[in-house]
Design goal:
Blueprint: E1 7-8, H1 10-21, E2 29-36, E3 42-48, E4 58-63, E5 66-71, H2 75-78, E6 82-87, E7 92-97, E8 112-113
Parallel strand pairs: 1-6, 2-5
Antiparallel strand pairs: 2-3, 3-8, 4-5, 6-7
Length: 117
């Protein structure tokens, strides 16, 4: 595993499979992208994805039969990070953990971040 990889937790893979089993998703595939905005400058965006993979622009990371797709622009913001699924009392959803590219813990929402300079 290199620092250019995305790490997918077992919980993330299990939740994507459950979404397919429940009919919420047709493919065990999650698209991760980074957008400008949010209270810290950038934000993570997660989408269940059943579209075709663009082999020129998309990078595909696999664990236990599920895929996380990151476009070639967003990978620069998240390489080396971990994709997880978190369940808390007030919210549940996909999350990025241990992103080596960000400055500090980011926003309290867990979605917004600023880059290291």
């Amino acid at each position: 595993m290199s620092m250019d990889d995305i790490i997918i937790t077992k919980k993330c893979a299990q939740h994507l499979k459950k979404m397919v089993d429940k009919g919420i998703a047709t493919e065990p595939r999650l698209r991760l992208s980074v957008e400008s905005g949010g209270c810290s400058g950038f934000s993570y965006k997660f989408d269940v994805d059943d579209t075709d993979i663009d082999e020129e622009e998309d990078l595909v990371f696999v664990r236990d039969g599920v895929e996380v797709i990151v476009d070639d622009t967003s990978i620069e913001f998240v390489k080396g990070a971990t994709v997880d699924y978190e369940q808390e009392l007030i919210r549940s959803g996909f999350a990025i953990l241990n992103n080596p590219n960000i400055d500090g813990p980011g926003c309290g929402c867990g979605v917004s971040f600023s880059l290291k300079e």
